[in-house]
Write a structure and sequence with these properties.
2 copies of one chain form a homodimer. Chain A has 435 residues and is of the alpha/beta class. The first copy, chain A, folds into 3 domains: 153 residues, NAD(P)-binding Rossmann-like Domain (Rossmann fold, 3-Layer(aba) Sandwich); 160 residues, 2-Layer Sandwich (Dihydrodipicolinate Reductase, domain 2); 81 residues, 2-Layer Sandwich (Alpha-Beta Plaits). Chain A is built from 14 helices and 17 strands. In chain A, strand 4, helix 4 and strand 5 form a beta-alpha-beta unit. The first copy, chain A, is elongated, with a radius of gyration of 24 Å. The relative contact order of chain A is 0.13. Chains A and B meet through helix 2, helix 6, strand 12 and helix 12 of A and helix 2, helix 6, strand 12 and helix 12 of B.
Chain lengths: 435, 435
């Protein structure tokens, strides 16, 4: 006996939305076999009705207003692919949940800002709010944290969550190019936006990290509490020095449980060249999860792109299609939204770890000794110290510290700067353990 | 309002079973929060009732016969951790499903042999049969293939599925040790069994691969059709030659869709040193999945160990706890068991790929030319050919072929052997593309 189809409405027909419509049509019979009933696109909404998207919309009804679409009694699930942390995306998701529709969204900005509120509405109404596509594209990290790792206590989650940054860093390393050159190339090839700030300054990574943090630690989402540093200051000299020391530079989002709270930070990071995450090149994303029971798990794969993101949306839809009304679902962020603990921020100055410090110094007698004594004053012990540029006016001093604190490093570098020893801005890059 | 607890019975209290009982007790309140109801261990069964396992069994009832336990009306879920592809494991899982219990199992041998039959019983009775722990321990590869990749067409799935083999190969490479030395060390350290045949000859990998193949390609499980080659013939010379050529040797299980059917093969494999999977060291497992929509996804993590495996069992239990009776579940192997296609075997002789061939030859005039002509006769084009051992009685010839067929390589090597050119057994290792 054929079960009733799962009727969906899709708002937003950009790259991902178009791909979802196409894939649902192409995979119709296979999805029906897997889910026990068809998944049928009934309604769509997008800004431009006339644009040719290369998909057949003849059997699908067009609705101009996404909020009206979200409320339509003709659909069971609302798929939000509009984007943006407010406006029509927020209005339509809320309307869908309030009128009894499950929601699937790829919108990290929306969840980062309103996720807990929306989760609460979904849970109160016994609805699913699925968002696999919102973090790391096609990599099933939400399903892993929310379902597979039930009962695990997460100690750290970190990852390469922005393909644009990883593409730029990969090319800088492979070809010795400057950040600006690589960015221009990435823009030309469509891997970076005309205004790249959102990606390269780490905001996109921060949105995604904030969602992972909530899932990992059972706390409310708090993107505004994330320490943020982008990759625009990374130079070929840093990348070369990292390589010589056995490290590779990646923009990581890291969330970590500490004694004083939860650290959330996005910054260029040195990871051991021999680690699995260091081999994640180009636009590929990766997420590592450390837990008490499991140890370390790593997932890597395409973090963006129409089809990869559509794959995650369709996986979310299939989960809904396999379920039936009236059964209780797992909570949206792993724990009931009303029980998510307030986010307790660990102060960045208390962060503990190794540091890479690159200083450009005037070639004067005693510079080296002054630097060493400033480090010692702040109880920073050095794993290595190297000096370059014997014949030059300026010398480069590269230090790698043993485990120390952010505060100690900031103080030491500030003192060295005030001592007038530096001929250029100091460079400080955090080192992250990785298996 | 507190929902009724999910009542479970566990048969088998080895390392994994003990860890499951401990973790369910330790994580009681956290799991209740995540699942909306408690998961409570009601019954256990194991061979030795008197052994001290370091866990509190005082609140849990002991049942001597696992089949009786499986049928008990006091439980909702039967957890099978007995092991073995028949006997009490099969009898109890069948009894559980036939008496309306969901089943969670870590038993790859059982599923490899009877998985489709058991899935059919589960599906006819509207029950869940979950088995995340059966393949790659704590890595959520079953969930990924069964749920996250809904609608994706898989072209290839491959992985490092046996920690013992990967541990041995990792140490052979790192320390230049022989296979026998590493095996002895692994046995001493508890990473290999006293009788290691099952692991090192690839049977364990084959069981796991057969399950992944069914999930990936929607076909019946057919472990007996897997081409099988273990790692006991791998020498330090192979590992060194591989490294010089930019490869690392891993025991892979590979399932791949070809024009003539599905290839399933387990053999030592050369993967590019720069690939992510090449960085998977020691007892860690990894699985790569290639699909039409997603591209390539890689999951790596602990493939064995009490807690990591228990984590997967508990994830499976949590999924059941979050569900409620009366809703339709997704099929056990991704597609309904009755609709799984018969496994259509692609012949190994038709396998296409690159090959590494290492020959030990007598130092006679014309040997090199004879070898080259035998390769040409079989239309094998060479990417590289290197000859070592200038001053020795025997010379080593190392060839890497361009894409060719298994049949061509077998024929060429057979002819070279019959030509009487070889002073030792020829070594042939397949090369696998990996990102």
């Amino acid at each position: 006996m054929a079960a009733a189809p799962l009727r969906i409405g899709i708002a937003g027909l950009g790259t991902v939305g178009t791909s979802v419509v196409r894939m649902l049509a192409d995979k119709k019979s296979e999805l029906e076999r897997q889910c026990g009933r068809p998944i049928t696109t009934i309604l769509v909404s997008a800004r431009d009705r006339t644009r040719d998207r290369g998909i057949d919309l003849s059997q699908i009804q067009w609705v101009d207003d996404p909020v009206e679409l979200a409320r339509s009694p003709e659909i069971d699930v609302f798929v939000e692919l509009i984007g943006g942390d407010n406006g029509p995306a927020m209005a339509s998701v809320k309307a869908a949940l309030e009128s009894g529709k499950h929601v699937v969204t790829a919108n990290k900005a929306l969840l980062s800002k309103h996720g807990v509120e929306l989760a609460q509405i979904a849970e109160e109404n016994g609805l699913l709010l699925n968002y696999e596509a919102a973090v790391a594209g096609g990599i099933p990290v939400i399903k892993t944290l929310r379902e597979a790792l039930a009962g695990n206590q997460v100690s750290r989650v970190f990852g390469i969550l922005n393909g644009t940054c990883n593409y730029i860093l990969t090319r800088m390393e492979a070809e010795g190019m400057s950040f600006q050159e690589c960015l221009a190339d990435a823009q030309r090839l469509g891997y970076a936006e005309a205004d790249p700030t959102f990606d390269i300054e780490g905001h996109d990574t921060a949105h995604k990290l904030s969602i992972l943090t909530s899932l990992a630690f059972g706390c409310q989402i708090s993107a505004q509490d994330i320490y943020l540093e982008g990759i625009s200051n990374i130079t070929p000299a840093d990348i070369k020095a990292a390589a010589n020391l056995g490290y590779r530079i990646k923009l990581l989002g890291v969330a970590q449980r500490t004694e004083t709270g939860i650290e959330q930070r996005v910054h260029p990071t040195m990871v051991p060249t021999s680690s699995v995450i260091a081999q994640v090149h180009g636009v590929t994303n990766a997420v590592a999860i450390e837990t008490d029971m499991l140890g370390e798990l790593l997932l890597s794969g395409p973090g963006a792109g129409g089809n990869a993101t559509a794959s995650a949306v369709i996986g979310d839809l299939a989960d809904i299609a396999k379920s039936r009304p009236g059964f209780q679902h797992g909570p949206v962020f792993g724990r009931p939204a009303r029980e998510l603990a307030p986010y307790q921020r660990a102060r960045m100055r208390s962060h503990e770890g190794g540091y890479f410090i690159r200083l450009t110094v005037h070639d004067r007698l005693g510079v080296f000794a002054s630097i060493a004594s400033r480090m010692a004053e702040n109880e920073i012990s050095l794993e290595s110290i190297v000096q370059h540029g014997d014949a030059a006016e300026y010398k480069t001093v590269i230090m790698v510290t043993h485990e120390t604190t952010e505060l100690a490093v900031r103080n030491a570098v500030e003192r060295i700067t005030n001592d007038g020893l530096l001929a250029d801005k100091p460079q400080v890059i955090r080192i992250e353990r990785a298996a």
